[in-house]
Amino acid sequence: MINYPYQSLILLSGWTVAGDHFKTWHQEICNRNKSGELYWVDSTIVPLVNTSGKIDRYLSVRVDITARKQKDLDLNERLKESNCLHTVRNYLEQDLSVEKTCQSILNCLTLALQFPEMAVAMLKLADKQFTTASYQDNFPNTISAKIIANGEVCGLLQVAYIQDLSFVLPYEQNLIDTVAHDLSRWYERTEAEKRIIEMATHDALTGLPNRHLLQDRIEQALVHDTRSQRQMAVLFIDLDHFKTINDSLGHDIGDLLLKAVAERLLICVRNEDTVARQGGDEFIVVLNSITESLDAAKVAQKILDSLLRPYYIHKNELHIGGSIGIAVFPNDGTNAETLLKNSDVAMYHAKENGRNNYQFFTDELNKSAHERHTLGLDLRYALERNELVLYYQPVMDMPNHQLHSIEALLRWRHPEHKLIAPDKFINLAEETGLIIPIGEWVLKTVCAQIKAWQEQDYIVPKVAINLSARQFRDKELINNISRILSETGVEAKYIALEITESMLIDNIERVVETLNRLSAMGIQISIDDFGTGYSSLSYLKRFPIHTLKIDRSFVRDIVTDKNDRTIVATIIAMAHSLEMDVIAEGIETEEQLNLLMAQKCNHYQGYYFSKPVPVSEIEHTLLKPIPPTSKIRVIHSAK
Fold first, then answer.
1. Domain range spanning residue 265?
2. Which of 200, 232, 254 is the last residue of a domain?
3. Which of 350, 371, 382, 537 is deepest in the core (most CB within 10 A)?
4. What's the pTM?
5. Which pairs with CB-CB distance under 8 Å and at least 24 residues apart come from 409-414?
6. The domain spanning residue 249 has which CATH number?
7. Within this chain, do residues 439 and 522 fall inside the same structural domain, yes or no?
């Protein structure tokens, strides 16, 4: 090969340069030598023709231009580096999120590399990682730089080519190093700003929001709850006898106790609520978007119970309680200042009432919360005092008015409040877990009564028992039912369990398993208050359901409301298509009864035939149908 400059190209004797229709080829080519280094040549190939005008040979001229290309490349790299750094620093100066800042820098960085279409990048910063598309952890050829803030490595910046391409060194490494350095300074600055804001808005001891951030949180919650027309509660908590512990054991122990109290308070509330330290031994809890004022009482009691558990600090067993004042938006105030002041006033009422209790700002709510709390305490002893009693209501056949079954309905014969209906105390039983032993008592009592009737030669129908959601979820439900049936000697076919629609949608597979096991025992399953829940009709075929009970809200206006008539007719037709029986609840008039008979409803229940009655009265219905003259007509609901 002969290397000549373009201007000094020499033609060999006897040959001439081809005309215009024979084009000369020219290209700058990058090659790699045996040692792996890149070099550039300027290659020109000229066709040569003979005397006949035909191409016979080619003249190739190759000129080494590595030095010139390096100068051009150096200039280009410097321009790309300058543009990239300018863009990166612009991103770092903007008030963007960490994610957007890091992603923007990675995209900018890959464009500044020698082969941008083949480049990928990754940025680790603290506990987060950001990458460009197609990035993987196992690329063989990478360059990287550490991100160092306050003398410690806090991240890593890395770029790679997805193909086996070489980086242009040292320029691309210098670019990575410079960007990593800029990121280090930026991260140091942002972390310092966070610490300053943290110190200004949070309590140094507990890490909870301080009174300044608390004010802002309350105002934000007020805006949200005003818009959504929800209530909000502010709980002012003062620790009882904290000063005694602080003075006797020292401030170090006192500080550790305050931190332990803060941790317990956080466990007692939801993530969207706020726990703040007002100062000293005073804490504030803000409950956002509560359904009713008494929800605040539940949380307050939960906090009091949590505070009373012993604390173990430096081999000291410490005991402390709290006094809680509650102010509720909007009745007790419409701004942060008023709510805090009124909750403080209520807290002092709690202290005056013996400490370790909570008080609402209004007398009305105080009374309501007190009654609810007292009722809950009384319920704990209702079983021991034999205050619970079962009433029974007949379910009749259509159209022959024969007794089909009986529903057992729980009542509480309270020594002061007389007879209490279940809607007044079942929720309390659910919340406290008392529903489990109460439910067992109901089943035992029903089985014992069935056995007693059988021994007296009564014709005993099936007896339906309502099952609460918590009972239904109890892992020991099947075992407890089997044990009680075995102990009382009652066959399962005499028992029907009534559940609500909402229970069907909670863990479908487990519900199916539980219902199948109950059905296999011979127990029938009814869906109570059907039409008011959330289950899809398509789900019903998955469950071993024997009976649907149409909710009384649809039956009440069936005579005057066309929509209710349509709904009832649809439920009956759908149930029959699935081979299920139907019971209509809340029958009060003959007109309602006639309409249901026309729709071929199977059974009915309500005051038109009998209100729920004690066991002594229901026995009169066990041997024969209720004669028409004994029908009781009232205008109230069924149960």
1. 206-375
2. 200
3. 350
4. 0.51
5. 409/466, 409/612, 409/639, 410/438, 410/442, 410/466, 411/612, 412/379, 412/382, 412/387, 412/388, 413/387, 413/388, 413/389, 414/378, 414/382, 414/387
6. 3.30.70.270
7. yes
